[in-house]
Amino acid sequence: MNLEKVFENNKAWIKGKLEVRDNYFEELGKGQSPELLYIGCSDSRVSTEELMGAKPGEVFVHRNIANMVISIDLNTMSVVNYAVNHLKVNHIVVCGHYACGGVKAAMQSADLGILNPWLRNIRDVYRIHNSELNNIKDEEKKYDRLVELNVKEQCVNLIKTAAVQKAYRDRGLKVHGWVFDVHTGKLIDLKIDFEKYLHDIMEIYHLD
Hints:
alpha/beta; 5-stranded mixed sheet; globular; 10 helices; single chain
């Protein structure tokens, strides 16, 4: 990538926006009020706003390796709490994608250094669902299913948080699980049953 070209592209982008609306950046600078928090993977092939057809200011975005929601990750938890408590989003989406390098790396028998503790959380997803996954003989299909199950488990991790439970109680916030198919460009809704997951965990994770 030619970094000088980036600045040329930026100038062209500014020009294009101002040609459509001369106060575009004045309006953009007034603040944000997104309805949606999107937690996705850092993979360079997944362009968050573009794949949803969203405009600047409509989606609050957090990305990390394999779209994880880990309770002791201050980065993710700060994003969730800011989005839910201050921006007042009404929807949180965890979006994984097929052919995820993080998911594949987690299943390797290799020492990946600083990635080890991060990827261990994906290995825990495999451990929870090992009966189903071990019955899938095709390796690519197994990885695809692990991608889906990982999204579902990260949704559960969100539902365990006080911020999400309070926002659900106060204004009906919902959590959604999606997968982006890099082979077709399609977004797939995994139909997360928010109320069922919430009910299932309330005995242990109920927070006032």
